[in-house]
Amino acid sequence: MKRSVVRRLAAVRWLRRSVSLAAAFALVAGTVTISVQEPVEAAPGDLGGIVFEDVAGDALAGAQAIGDAGNPGRPGVDIYLYRDDGTTPGAFDAGDTLWAGGANPVQTAANGAYAFNGVTDGAYWVVVDSSKMTPQAGTNALAGYAAVAEQTYGAAGSLCDDGTGTTVMSASAGGCYGGRNATVSDNVAAFATREHVMSVTLVGESTGNDFGFSYNVVVNTDGNVTTPAQGSLEQFLLNAGAVAGVNVMRFVPRVPTNGAGNWWTITATGAFSTIHDADTSIDGRAFDPAGGNLDATNPGYLGANAAGTVDVGANDTALPQVPKPELEITGSGFHATDDAVSGLVPHRFAVRRVAMSGAAETIRINADYQTTPVVSDPVLEWSVLGSGPESFTGALPSGDSKRIVWNAVSGGTIASNLVGFSDGHTVSIISVDGATIQGNEFRDSQSDVVDFYIQSSNITFTGNLVTGAADYGLDAIAGSATVTNNTFEANGDGAGQSAGVRFFSAGHTVQFNEILNNAGPGIIVAGEMVATPRPRGEAVISQNEFSGNAGLAVDVQAASESNSLNGDGVTANDGGTTATSGNLALDFPVITAADYSGGTTTVVGAACDGCTVEIYRANAGAGDAGEN
Fold it and tell me: What pairing do the DSSP bridges indicate for beta strands 301-302 and 322-323?
């Protein structure tokens, strides 16, 4: 068949593919109006295709198409054409020569299309120079951050890493993550580093030889932060700073698991690049090239509720079961803060489904006591901090000072995490307003486990397990915390600071908590400190359960300059209040009579004016003796 006939037949086939009547039909005065949306089409030529940006990094999963909003064609990308005339036919090798029949390389047009004209029938290789890719969203003016996209998609005949370091040729169009070798960065100047390659056998003409690239995929476990590999976590962080707009990491590992277990490990050689731009999300959930998740790679759950039988709080709130992560990160934490020069602020910074350890600070937002600019609505979910992905265990000292430090934050969520084994405070909340901390297991610190520092407010702390602090399980120096349905157990070492919970400042609500077996009072409502300015504590304490604490269930302290005052015992009633004491040193209720008759218990006594009195059943034995 003559080539012109082949071209006409191909054109007919293309027309049938491309004309969509999915748009609206309108009948007006007997006339049918048809609106047709034309798809992205390759430029005419003997051999061509489209290079597009796969924004989500999901290789057109679901109802997507090249040229739609999430997969725009990209201009200005150099495309090379090689003859398959090297040492081994059908294998891309150093002996294959550049096609010399016309312009070579060609550049993609505004819609991402490329075409080679005048190409005779035969076997060829198409090679893309990914360094010429640019993001559709544009770039930020952020010094030191350069964007490099990684391949995610290829037409049939693409050379792809099979996940074991072996290059295979794809039989059909779809996911092709990392190109020929997911651990090698693209450089078209040398055969060994030409990464994005496709085999094309030309008979007449060949279209649809398409390539997809994303700035949001992580495909390998390279931890080099000085010269990061294409498709690495560090490169994603650089991309997130350089590419304007939303950057959500998609982890599609094309390298084997770490050999010691069923997960992938990234060991940083130094500090990761700082997160500056808004809407940067780090997510360790693993996917295969076809879009399926790899949750079964590391099955099971970690933490105290691994078996799904642990509740917290007086209302028996279920503690979340935290799945074993598929991605482990060691050697560096993540630091998010503003960049004064570019004006970027990392609003909605998110970390999900990772295990992290071996860093002085694991997750930090802003510098200590920074007040502006405020980062809004960060998220930390379903992660394991302070341990590996196989078991939530550790020892102290760990060499890691803090796990979570949030400073100058508005809103935000810390939920369903396992966090522990820190030499300093496990969680430090500083100048934070309106955050929710829910359903976490916080444990084992050589200091406090959780601290709410001065200038924080409106913190909701609910459904958490807090255990293993050398000092306080929770030290709420800041005001207006709502602390409900938590379990505070086995906190304090009995020396100096040692209790389940301590409160300074006003506006706290403490309700439905279990406070058990702490080496000091269950709750301390602290008095005023002047030298280190801290206002007296005020808290509504209601319907909590206490058992086995070494001190009073609730100890209301007088003013003191000692930050290590471990409660001060029962405060005698005096008929008045003390402005500098915790809860104003309100008199405790006095029971004068109690009677049980006919199934009804009657308690008679006296209490302060306007106070609500709750009746508790006392546990037999030592601990929790006396209140106030």
Answer: antiparallel
